[in-house]
Amino acid sequence: MLKSNKVRHLMLGTMKSAKSAHLLMHGYQLDEQGKKVLTLKPETDLRDGAFVSSRALHTKRPAHIIPKYDDGSYVQSIIETERPEVILVDELQFFTDEQVEALAKASIRFDVAIQAYGLMISYTGEMFSPIKRAMECGFTIHHLSMPCAHCSQDATHHLLYLDGVLQTSGSPINVEDYADATQIYESVCYDCYTTAIQAAYA
Ligand SMILES: [Zn+2]
User: Fold this and answer.
1) How far is the CA of 16 from the centre of ligand 1 (A)?
2) Which residues partner with 8 through β-bridges?
3) CB atoms within 10 A of CB 52
4) Which of 30, 92, 143, 187 has the fewest Cβ atoms nearer than 10 Å?
5) What is the pLDDT of residues 148-199, one digit of tens each?
6) What's the EC number here (predicted)?
7) What is the mean pLDDT of the chain?
């Protein structure tokens, strides 16, 4: 059997589970091995500009920004041009389904490994669509564990407070929508998530 590079890993973690730090450390290891790495991030989250950065590690690495309205053709063309051995993807939940499909197809066509990082479930309690699409496109799921903010179970969900008020519905993507409000996210387990949401409705 021919050796293939095209593994597709999806590293899922809640907010503050050090996903970007994990990406940066993995990128460093690949750089040290002399592998050609392409780093991608979505236009939706440009708080750090054209870099993936980590507050924990005080370091960053340059990233290509995938435009919001790309139908997947830009994703394919950049991979075709750069011909990386490994693609690191930050914030996969902010890509589109079409862009995720383009990544998966390019990994097969150009025999390239992908390691993508993302959030699984939005503060609305629903799975992000591009994450679901990645699972359908053969990404292998890994979890970066982190304890719940309120108990000892693993965090899987998020509570979003805007100016102190718990949000129970809205757009799953809110990086820009509420730029003026004080946003506080808590990474919690399903039990604590459900308890908080039910209390907000009561
Ligand atoms: Zn909990």
Assistant:
1) 15
2) 114
3) 24
4) 143
5) 999 999 999 999 999 999 998 887 776 555 567 788 999 999 999 999 999 9
6) 2.7.1.21
7) 92
- State what percent of residues in the chain have pLDDT above 90: 81
Rounded distance from Cα 189 to ligand 1 centre (Å): 4
Compute, in angstroms, the gap from residue 199 CA to the centroid of ligand 1: 15
Map out the domains of the chain with their CATH numbers. Answer: 8-143 (3.40.50.300), 157-201 (no CATH)
* CA pair distance 93, 152, nearest whole angstrom: 26
Any idea what DSSP says for residue 121? B
Cα→Cα distances 127→25, 118, 173, Å: 27, 11, 12
The Å distance, Cα 185 to ligand 1 centre, comes to 14
Quote the ligand 1 centre to 155 CA distance (angstroms). Answer: 7
Ligand 1 center from residue 66 Cα (angstroms): 35
Q: d(Cα 40, Cα 112) in Å, to the nearest integer?
A: 14
What is the rounded CA–CA span in Å between residue 33 and residue 171? 41
Res. 57 pLDDT band, cuts 50 70 90: confident
CB distance 18 to 57 below 8 Å: no
Instruction: Please report the sign of the dihedral spanned by the C-alpha atoms of residue 93, residue 62, residue 66, residue 45.
Output: positive
